């Protein structure tokens, strides 16, 4: 087989033979490269870690009842905290005009207000930091063509989602500042559980999008480094015998995300403060039927909304739903682990997939323990915040597992491209001395 000119002459390697750590290779029909920069991958993963942190901090903000301490949304000027006593008095005056102060904290002092104010202010400042630290580098990577066209569109989508998340955050806070909450007969001043769930769901989607995009870049770079090994893995993952396992992981991902959303409803309704035992709920496994399907939550004369209103607004049924979903998730993870260790799946699954399944088992055991402890100890702040972090950790484990099982079409094209180049140039990036 003839050797390429670069290989026989010892000329510097072309873009197609550059190492994975170098800048990505330009494709023939586009100004965008065919693989993205490794720096972009690390930046995306670091951004995901920052989102993970703000999710935990947001949980602490809610648990310390700090979320309604700032009653205005000022995306730019709100980045600066009060700087003197006059500014603090002005902010405290605004808070004293809110339903939460009037009904729950009428004896709060200025010093106590400063504590909850800084919790909410730091949460909002962190959100601004995430936005700036993502948008500015994203513009650079796209403008300098350091990412593929597909990744560039992902960056645009993530940036838009971050901006939308800021709007949802204020939309959520505004639900706890409504004038009707001043009424003594109204529910205690708190944000809408629906808006809280939307806010948390958007954060989880943003995190997942960042993480998976970063991991996909690293996978493509490994393809460039060793297309033969990548082709072998792709061949294994395409086997029909692994389709049921791949489908099971997809279903588990959806189940984990649904369980997270039900947990947000529990948090929004303070439903974790009732029935603080496990597995019992009062005198039985479930509360009485009349309590679960209470007509009090129906808003239509014919009670046609009775079932879904109770499922989303009745604290007793919301907690029961979360218990059922959490238990189902636990059992599903254990079943998936058994699936990965038996039959043809055990023989065919790559080693990193098996390790991923084991990791998910560890995460779900930790999360189940945290959930039960949070419940029986009546939602202490440190346990509740750790439980929320555990939900995102469990989702991370399932996402990584699913990522290891996929070889998208774009990656398959890279495998074919670099495998073909390797057929003509076996030692990529090296010098080969022709035989005499």
TrEMBL record:
It is a multi-pass membrane protein. Keywords: Heme biosynthesis, Iron, Membrane, Metal-binding, Oxidoreductase, Transmembrane, Transmembrane helix. Its cofactor is heme b. Pathway: Porphyrin-containing compound metabolism; heme A biosynthesis; heme A from heme O: step 1/1. InterPro entries: COX15/CtaA_fam, HemeA_Synthase_type2. The chain crosses the membrane at residues 40-60, 125-143, 155-174, 194-218, 247-269, 320-339, 360-379, 385-403. The keyword Nucleus does not apply. Residues 1-33 are annotated as: Disordered. It catalyses: Fe(II)-heme o + 2 A + H2O = Fe(II)-heme a + 2 AH2. The keyword Transmembrane applies. It is found in: Membrane. HAMAP family: HemeA_synth_type2. This is Cytochrome c oxidase assembly protein cox15. It comes from Sporothrix curviconia. The gene is COX15.
């Amino acid at each position: 087989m003839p050797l390429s000119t670069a290989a026989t002459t010892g000329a510097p390697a072309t873009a197609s033979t550059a190492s994975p750590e170098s800048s990505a290779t330009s494709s023939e029909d586009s100004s965008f490269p065919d693989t993205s920069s490794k720096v972009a991958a690390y930046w995306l993963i670091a951004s995901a870690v920052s989102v993970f942190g703000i999710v935990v901090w947001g949980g602490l903000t809610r648990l310390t009842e700090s979320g309604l301490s700032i009653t205005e949304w000022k995306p730019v000027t709100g980045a600066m905290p009060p700087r003197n006593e006059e500014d603090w008095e002005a902010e405290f005056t605004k808070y004293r005009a809110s339903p939460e102060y009037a009904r729950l904290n009428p004896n709060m002092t200025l010093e106590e207000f400063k504590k909850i104010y800084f919790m909410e202010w730091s949460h909002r400042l962190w959100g601004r930091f995430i936005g700036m630290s993502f948008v500015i580098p994203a513009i650079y990577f796209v403008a300098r063509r350091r990412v593929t066209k597909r990744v560039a569109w992902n960056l645009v989508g993530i940036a838009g989602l971050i901006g939308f998340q800021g709007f949802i955050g204020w939309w959520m806070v505004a639900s706890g500042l409504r004038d009707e909450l001043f009424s003594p007969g109204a529910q205690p001043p708190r944000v809408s559980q629906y808006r809280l769930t939307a806010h948390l769901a958007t954060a989880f989607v943003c995190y997942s999008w960042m993480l998976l995009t970063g991991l996909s870049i690293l996978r493509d770079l490994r393809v460039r480094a060793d297309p033969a090994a990548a082709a072998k893995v792709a061949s294994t993952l395409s086997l029909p015998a692994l389709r049921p396992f791949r489908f099971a992981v997809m279903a588990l991902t959806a189940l984990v995300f649904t369980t997270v959303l039900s947990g947000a409803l529990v948090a929004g309704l303070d439903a974790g403060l009732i029935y603080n035992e496990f597995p019992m709920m009062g005198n039985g496994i479930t509360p009485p039927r009349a309590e679960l399907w209470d007509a009090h939550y129906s808003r239509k004369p014919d009670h046609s909304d009775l079932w879904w209103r109770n499922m989303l607004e009745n604290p007793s049924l919301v907690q029961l739903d979360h218990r059922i979903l959490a238990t189902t998730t636990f059992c599903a993870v254990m079943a998936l682990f058994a699936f990965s260790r038996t039959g043809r799946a055990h023989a065919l699954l790559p080693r990193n997939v098996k390790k991923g399944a084991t990791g998910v088992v560890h995460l779900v055991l930790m999360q189940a323990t945290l959930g039960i402890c949070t419940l029986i100890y009546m939602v202490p702040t440190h346990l509740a915040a750790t439980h929320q972090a555990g939900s995102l950790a469990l989702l991370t484990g399932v996402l990584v597992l699913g990522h290891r099982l996929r070889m998208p079409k774009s990656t398959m094209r890279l495998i074919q491209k670099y495998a073909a180049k390797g057929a003509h140039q076996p030692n990529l990036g090296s010098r080969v001395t022709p035989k005499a």
